[in-house]
Amino acid sequence: MKSLYLDIVDSTNKWAKEHILEIEDKTLVYTFNQTDGRGRLKRKWLNTGTDNIYASFVLKPSAAMKEVYSNLTQYLCIVLAEIMEEYGTLPKIKWPNDIKINDKKVSGILAEGVISDNELKGIILGFGVNLNTNKENLVSIDQPATALNIEVGKEIDKNEFLKKVYDRFCLMYDEFIERGFSLIRDDYIRRANFLNKNVSVKVFDKTVNGLATDITENGALKIIDKNNKEQILLIGDIL
Ligand code: BTN
Asked: Ligand 1 atom 2: the closest Cα is on which residue?
C-alpha cells in the first residue's frame, strides 16, 4: 500500500492538494484525527473520533481532464460498498456517491481536481467512513448518520479496513479509467436506493423534482419530471 500517514491534519483533501506535486500517483493520504474536514456542497465532515477513517487518494491519471474522472467518486462508492458487504451489512447508494446502511449515511466522498498552467496536476479523492463511533458522537449533517461498528455489532479494525479499500480500489482502477462508468453500472444500479421513486434533486441553487428512472452509461441520473419531460442530471444531490 502506497500511503502517507498524518498524525493530525485539518483536512486530508486540503493537505493532499497543497502537496500534490510531491506525492506519487495512487498514494493514500490518511489520518485518524482530522480537525476541519470538508464535505460536498460546502458542508463539513465532522471528526467523530480517532477510530474512524479520514483519507484521500492522490491520483494522476493524465495531464488532460477526461469525462471518466468525474465518475471516480462512484467507483470508490462501489469499492466501499463491497467492503461493507464483506462485514455482513447491506449498503445502499444514494446518487451520486453517498453510502447508507439502514437508511443512514455511513460514508461520504469528495473529489477535487488540481489544475494549474492548464494542466491537470491530479485528482484528490477523499472519503470519510464512520467506522467506530459511539452513538452519542454521531453527527447528522445533512441526513441521519450511522457507523459500521453499530451496524455490525462489533469494533472494526481501522488499518485492516483501510488496506482493503486500497487494494480493492487499485485492483480495477486502470480498467475503470479505460472503460468508464459502464464497468460498474450494474453493480451501482443493484445497490441504488432511489430508482423508481419520486425524488427532489438539488442542482446548484435549483431543485428538480420527478421520478428517478435510470442511471445512464455515464453515471448520470435520469428523471421524468412533472411535465413528463426527461431530464439527465450530471451533477446534484438527492435531498
Ligand atoms: C460528503 O459527504 O459531503 C463528503 C465528505 C468527505 C469527507 C472526507 S474525510 C477525508 C477527506 N478530507 C476532507 O476534508 N474531506 C474528505
From this structure: 108
What backbone phi and psi angles, to 5 degrees, belong to 157?
-70, 115
Parts of the chain with a pLDDT under 70: 140-141
Task: Give 66 Cα–ligand 1 centroid separation in angstroms.
Answer: 23
3-state secondary structure 78-126: HHHHHHHHHCCCCCEEECCCEEEECCEEEEEEEEEEEEECCEEEEEEEE
| Cα first-last separation, the chain | 36
227 φ/ψ sector (left φ>0, alpha ψ -120 to 50, else beta): alpha
Cα distance between residue 101 and residue 146, in whole Å: 7
> Does ligand 1 lie within 6 Å of residue 236's CB atom?
no
pTM value is: 0.95
pLDDT value at residue 91: 98
Q: Where would I find the beta strands (DSSP E) of 143-217? A: 197-203, 206-215
Give the SS3 label for residue 167: helix
Question: Residue 140: its pLDDT value, please?
Answer: 67
Give 51's DSSP letter. T
